Amino acid sequence: MSTRRKVLFVCTANSARSLMAEALLRELAGDQFEVASAGTRPEQPHPLALQCIREAGLNPDTVSSKPLSSVIDQQWDYVITLCDKAAQECHDLCEPAQRLAWDFPDPAVRNSHGAFALVMKELRERLSLFVMVHQKTTSQAASYDPAAVFKALGDDNRLAILLMIHQQTELCVCELTTALDAPQPKVSRHLAQLRELALLDDERRGQWVYYRLHPALPDWIHRVLRDTAEANELFLKPSLARLATMPDRPVKMDCA
What we know:
This protein has helices at residues 17-29, 47-55, 84-89, 107-110, 113-141, 146-153, 156-168, 173-180, 184-196, 219-231, 233-244; strands at residues 5-11, 33-39, 78-81, 98-101, 170-172, 200-205, 208-213. By secondary structure, it is an alpha/beta fold. A hairpin with a 2-residue loop joins β6 and β7. The N and C termini lie far apart (40 Å).
């Protein structure tokens, strides 16, 4: 059986960003990842995207546009959306994959070679970091101390944080403080502890820091979180209700 992690890139049209990302990751770490891409409303590959792939020394014949419905029944380790619109549309799909939301500008809006080349460059930089983090943490995934993990889960707030992020994919500090009805310093301390245990990963976007489950999290922890959430719906009900009615909640803008 293959030991490669399976990565699916998703964008609305699957005509540019996701195709370039697929070709790049296959080149950067094809021995570590099995890669594919799809679109929520696929269109024909953009000629400038294929040109940039070719100029990077890659074979554009290895990528093609396809509908998301053709791949959602497969088992994926990572589902990486490349625009906010796709992130919203496939929020509940491809469970229990780790979902990462990367928002890159649509080069088709400017429809120039320079715009496509810039996105290609930024994708390469982001994917190089993704590969580097995966290389650092792959060995760590087998060394998660179950006693330390269950100790972290033994606190009501830390358990709620992990279960909510498992359900919502990612949340920022202000959303968590509202959901938990707790002061920000207290929530930040819990988040720091979960980061130190490599249970959470974070990313700053503008003024907000978003938290998601760590990409190296082994399957047994994902199963614990999923089974705990399904068997204890009342535990999160008050927190989710506060989150749903949060005033001025950060809202991601749709991509073009």
